[in-house]
Amino acid sequence: MRGFRGAILGVALVAGFLGQAQAQQPRQDKVLKGDAVCTRCHDETEEYPVLAIGKTRHGTVADGRTPTCTSCHGESNLHVNRPPDARERPKPDRMFGKSSPTTMEQRSATCLACHQGETRMHWQLSTHASRDVACTSCHQIHTGHDRVRDKLTQTETCFACHKEQRVQINRPSHHPVKEGKMACSSCHNVHGSNPKQLVKSSVNDTCYTCHMEKRGPFVHNHQPVTEDCTICHQPHGTVIANLLKARPPYLCQECHSHTSHPSQVPGLPPGRTTSTSALGTVARGCLNCHTNIHGSNSTINSATSGRFRR
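RE: above sequence
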């Protein structure tokens, strides 16, 4: 019995000596330079993938610009060295969770300390910034796969707030966003300064990046086309072909009075008839004749060359 107790005591002493030896060994950085102080608690057991930052650009050790934990979260001395009389460990100087006391402006300022150029240089004037949205509201910093930077998953991040656009993009006529060929950022610069946060300074210039054949200049310009594409089109999606807001001739007659085609107001005749004036718009649309509706270069018939025909 005494031998058994002695063996247990010996094992305990050896374990104690090993523990002291390990405690005296300097802790090694796991991911970032100087992160040993943080990773003694925030390791791979964390529910949030803290160490996954090593798979991102923020974890590129060979790059001298790579930040450390304290670059974003602050020195957080009270958090690291918990006061003896504190019931709970004080929070870091800067936090980025949903319930964080750090303001949205402070969170974005942390990111903008490095990311201030190119498309992000007008962030402070953007609609998102003015509505209390922070960088971390959309971006996931510690994860290797940032959903908002992937065309296939970006829309789900945007649709969390833009629910009207979620409905529109699921309509029959839509841009190939659901198919993964486009994303919200194909047209929108979410860090930009113009009211609709477009990648170009105007709606038309943004549309022309893909639809260059509509740019012109034409001999005969259609004024709504040169003014704003969204006068006729709903770019996020409609139930009508070609992303039109309404079907011709109803769409066209929002601007064009029916007097150009006398007695041919769009609609069905009240009864059986063979009158050409009553049947003038049945099964017909303005684009059957006015095919070059975005602009025409026709000079064949000077009297009607400005009517956007072939």
